[in-house]
Amino acid sequence: MKRIVFISDLQMPLEHKKANRNIIRFIHDYQPDEVVNIGDITDYTAPARWSAGRRAEYGMSVLEEAAYTRKHHIEPLRAGYDGPVTLLGSNHGERPHRYLVDRAPALYDVGTFREDRLLHLDDYGIRFEPLSYDFAPGWTATHGHARGISLSRYAGGAALNAAKRLQRSVIMGHTHRAGIVSESTGVHGCRTLTGVEIGHLMEISKADYLGPARLANWQMAFAIAYVDTKGVTPHIIPVTRTGSFIVEGERYT
Length: 253
Prior knowledge:
Elements: E1 2-7, H1 17-30, E2 34-37, H2 62-80, E3 85-88, H3 95-103, H4 115-118, E4 126-129, E5 132-136, E6 139-142, H5 157-166, E7 169-172, E8 178-185, E9 191-198, E10 221-228, E11 231-238, E12 245-247, E13 250-252
Parallel strand pairs: 1-2, 2-3, 3-4, 6-7, 7-9
Antiparallel strand pairs: 1-10, 5-6, 8-9, 10-11, 12-13
């Protein structure tokens, strides 16, 4: 039985610090067969659309945020886990080069501000997949920001929309919601597509763009997928507001 841990939307340095530390400790203890980060590992706040002309545009630089992610997530993760790790491309990961293309095209360099280079992924033995990752037969992991994926107000709904578009079951992030939705078609429901949204791991109080009330239909969570010759069984692991969670009867806090 292969065990894959999926995490998404840390959006460092806006991450939930306790949740980040607990998940790293969990991965060290659990030693899964693979870790897949579905994207938005770094927020890159300064080049965001909502930062334009505001104080946030002149805050922590892209290089400083990338260094923060390496120091507080990638290096601690690798200190106790040397198994396969994959990072997927995402809308936040694309922010630095999009910012240059839109606002300083004369300075744009396609390679320098690619996320895999900003995070020095090769140095840590981490694979980068810019679009999607087929991690099991009939299953794809993708961040969820690609054109053509219809969003939904219900957790899992956007992932199911992506699954129907791709005709493969999908695990995704991006929406910051956590849920699993399936749809069966054909005689006796012979074909089933499943959409899994795995929530987020950021500190909502740091999300200035939500307004003073910080109102959002978001859920903190991550996922574990069990994979064998008969298929994939995904499980959502809810994370509390204090950053703790339970996996297979053990609480990490």
